[in-house]
Please model this.
Amino acid sequence: MKAVLYCRVSTEKEAQVSSLKRQRSELMQLAEHQSIEIVDCIEEQASGYEIEREGVFRLLDHFADGRAEALLIQDETRLGRGNTKIALFHQLQKLGIRIYSLSHEGELQISESDSMVLQIVGIVEEYQRKIHNMKIKRGMRKAVQEGYDPSHNLSNQHLAPGRERLVFPIEEVVRLRNNKLTFKEIAATLRGLGYDVSKATVHRRYQEFVSLEKQQEDR
Model:
């Protein structure tokens, strides 16, 4: 198993800086004890309530690209606090990442309250996805009934006749794009979810979606 070590302190005080070194040393020992290969060690000085951390982006890139399948942390508060912690737990859960912590001397056991929140978040997200899919399908049916031909939106389709069109959730692309992710980051996220898709394909499908939405608005 390959893993990323993540160490965090909230300030630059000397005592906190030394804590980073201690976290790293103890996590390396945990990895050795669990026979885990370390692919990266991320050390960060930032608030646990802040989700826009370079270290967080870096570790998510490792998981989305399949370079690692486990995360090692001192305890759950090192990953984040409050809503940030729940959001990151949810994302790691979707990517199928195993989390090990020093406080549990092995795989992290999420508290009952956090587990309940994650279940609710998952249910809400699933229903949002279903509603969004229904809206897209309804819009597509209406557009086709009014004479719209989706094939007209496919550029260069003559270069690959008969090639099977990749299937992946466009609503997830739209959601991630609305959250300011780049097409490269979105493609990496989709690959982490099991969709073998390139940045160019994600960009093209997104433009198709935007074009269709605009046509529907203009009708």
Notes: The radius of gyration is 21 Å.
